[in-house]
Design brief:
Length: 578
């Protein structure tokens, strides 16, 4: 089929190039370069870790085989290795995967030497298969194929005919490497994933809006120990703008607050865990970020009916005071250990009284949210080192390195965060510097850090009564004007602090990145950096805030030039006649 190259624009990102039509036929958003770069960084870390885990499992099976030959036990090698790994809670991708291919046709002989037995279990690991469920132009799939070493087949899906045609055109445009690794299909992603269970090592979900309708099929299509990468751009819903809609989509009620973007992450993780539990699977987050206009989570999925029982321990309800910034988390479940047995029981409650103990106001309730760690510190450190070593290969290096730096320094085991400015707004006082406030928390014996989700956010394991005592001590040194006695700030300040805060500067009050003056929160690289119009939508003057005046005027000029001459003449005649 012939095409006019003048109708297309060549867009280059990383090592991939795509042809984009002048009309808005296939969705493309330049701002998602951060998303794609971060995904490539995660894949570059996942592939060697996957190989290491495979080799470790092969070595374990070889040792189990040797033990079998020495002890003459009746239990099979594969069964013993599998049972032992589940008892120890190991997270190996080799579990419940395809059987390991042996180098010979005959089964292991008990009389063979250990070296030969180990070699038989060291089967070569196949290159990881990747599924991009919603590919549009195919740029993401092409970048995976061309930039990630060791990647296997990349399957790009879309249920829009124009997108599939564009994707296939771009595959050919990128040469032999893309043609050999990337394939495009016209299919419904949900049906395709359901009909290919446990077939892909990596599944990438990046929909326009909510991923909720894809989660159930996505958790089934990932192999055991595989990677699920998921984006959600419906931030108005996840951040509490429509709590009832959030509950219908994700099974959790969201609240508005300074921590709403982190809560959005934790709601998405809780929803994915809920879908995985239905199939005796569970998730382990390795990286979760809130950036630009979306949230993005990278999680590994495992199968274990026994480990799945720990899910209620990882979920919590949130109680947020309506008068001040106090919030409390109530775990959904608990465990009781007796001898060698563990009992799973419902969590104790209520955690808080009807009225806030700090200001006397009522509580709003939200959740359940994921309250376990949302990052794997080892993964984040490895990713950051890899990104810095090959910075030229990441178009958005500055942004993703700053995000990973922030993530590496935040407290991973502390859910949600406080805003120092909000605390001071409640008390109507001047704000202490972040260094002074951090020092007071550290000197009180607690931990504190920043958060990647908000430049002004502070994570701390200090209870709220300690936080308010520190603020009371600060106000004593920096008096405020009197307020109405029924105001939350007046009620909080009317109580004497039980803790005498020490505002002397602590050594750890600045993070390593802050001490080295590393940029951690960068401005947008250009104006109108954010979500774009859905593919096929008509561009009008009301879209100036999304696209910019130049882009809108360009679209309108193209549209006017495409009108039939007779129609334009008729319009001009009517205008002159009136």
């Amino acid at each position: 089929m012939s095409m006019d190259l003048n109708d297309f624009t060549i867009i280059k990102e990383g090592e991939a190039e795509i042809l984009m039509h002048a009309k808005n036929q296939v969705f493309f958003n330049k701002a998602q370069v951060n998303n794609r770069d971060l995904s490539i960084a995660v894949l570059r870390t996942f592939i060697p870790k996957r190989q290491q885990e495979h080799e470790a499992m092969c070595l374990k099976r070889a040792k189990s085989s040797q033990k079998y030959s020495e002890n003459g036990t009746s239990k099979s090698v594969m069964e013993e290795a599998s049972n032992e790994s589940h008892m120890n809670g190991e997270k190996s991708i080799a579990e419940l995967e395809e059987p390991v291919e042996m180098s010979g046709d005959e089964p292991c002989s008990v009389s063979e030497e250990p070296e030969k037995t180990e070699a038989k279990f060291r089967a070569e690991l196949n290159a990881p298969r990747v599924l991009e469920a919603l590919s549009a132009s195919g740029l993401r799939a092409l970048r995976y194929a061309r930039e990630v070493e060791g990647i296997g087949q990349v399957v790009a899906l879309d249920n829009d005919k124009a997108s599939v045609e564009a994707c296939r055109r771009n595959i050919k445009f990128n040469g032999s490497v893309a043609i050999s690794k990337v394939e495009s299909h016209l299919a419904d992603a949900r049906v395709y994933m359901l009909t290919h269970p446990k077939e892909f090592d990596v599944v990438d979900l990046d929909p326009y809006g909510s991923p909720s309708v894809f989660l159930d099929s996505a958790v089934q299509s990932v192999v055991d120990g595989g990677l699920l990468m998921c984006t959600a751009t419906d931030m108005a819903v996840l951040c509490g703008g429509n709590g009832e809609v959030c509950y219908s989509k994700y099974g959790s009620y969201a609240l508005r607050g300074k921590y709403c973007h982190e809560m959005a992450l934790r709601i998405l993780l809780a929803s994915i865990e809920s879908h995985a539990n239905r199939y005796k699977r569970y998730i382990v987050p390795v990286l979760s970020v809130a950036m630009d206009f979306y949230v993005r989570v990278f999680i590994r999925i495992y199968t274990s009916a026994s480990a799945m029982k720990n899910t209620p321990l990882k979920l919590s309800y949130v109680y947020q005071c309506t008068g001040c910034d106090s919030f409390h988390l109530q775990p959904l479940g608990r465990t009781v250990s007796k001898n060698n047995s563990v009992r799973y029981l419902p969590g104790f409650g209520p955690l808080v009284p009807q009225e806030c103990s700090d200001c006397g106001k009522k509580f709003n309730m939200a959740g359940p949210i994921w309250s376990a760690p949302i990052h794997d510190e080892e993964w984040v450190t490895s990713m950051l080192a890899d990104v810095k070593s090959v910075k030229d290969r990441y178009p958005a290096y500055n942004r993703i390195s700053s995000v990973l730096t922030n993530v590496s320094e935040e407290l991973s085991d502390v859910p949600l965060f406080l805003s120092l400015h909000n605390l001071c707004a409640t008390l109507k006082c001047t704000s202490p510097s972040a260094v002074i406030f951090r020092s007071a928390v550290i000197n009180a014996g607690y931990r504190i850090s920043g958060t990647h989700a908000n430049p002004l956010g502070l994570k701390s394991d200090a209870p709220m009564d300690v936080i308010w005592d520190i603020m009371r001590c600060w106000v004593k040194n920096h008096p405020v004007k009197s307020q109405a006695p029924d105001q939350p700030g007046s009620i909080i300040l009317s109580k004497e602090p039980l803790l005498q805060a020490n505002f002397a500067r602590a050594v750890a009050s600045l993070s390593k990145a802050q001490a080295k003056k590393v940029a951690r929160f960068l401005p947008n690289p250009e104006r109108h950096w954010g979500p774009k119009l859905r593919a096929g939508r008509q561009v009008t003057s009301k879209h100036v805030s999304l696209l910019g005046s130049e882009a809108v005027n360009g679209h309108l000029e193209i549209k006017e030039s495409e009108e039939p001459e007779s129609k334009r003449q008729k319009t001009e005649y009517l205008a002159s006649d009136s």
